[in-house]
Amino acid sequence: MPATSKTRPCAIVWFRDDLRITDNPALDASVRRGLPVVALYVLDEESAGIRALGGATRWWLHHSLTRLWESLTAIGIPLVLRRGAAENVLTDLVASTGASLVTWNRRYGGPEIAVDTRVKSALTLGGVTVESFAANLLYEPWTLKPASAPYYRVFTPFWKAALAAGTPRRLLPAPGALTAPASPAPQSPPPGDRLDDWTLLPRSPDWSGGLAATWVPGEDGARARLDRFLDTGLSDYARLRDRPDKDATTMLSPHLRFGEISPNQIWHAVRSRDDGQGADKLLAEIGWREFSWHLLFHNPDLATRNLDARFDRFPWRDDPRGLRAWQRGRTGYAIVDAGMRQLWATGWMHNRVRMIAASFLIKDLMIDWRAGEAWFWDTLVDADMANNPASWQWVAGCGADPAPFFRVFNPALQAEKFDPDGAYVRQWLPERTGGPPPARIVDHAAARRRALEAFKTLKE
Ligand SMILES: Cc1cc2nc3c(=O)[nH]c(=O)nc-3n(C[C@H](O)[C@H](O)[C@H](O)COP(=O)(O)OP(=O)(O)OC[C@H]3O[C@@H](n4cnc5c(N)ncnc54)[C@H](O)[C@@H]3O)c2cc1C
Question: Which segments of the chain belong to CATH 1.25.40.80?
Answer without folding.
Answer: 137-169+218-298
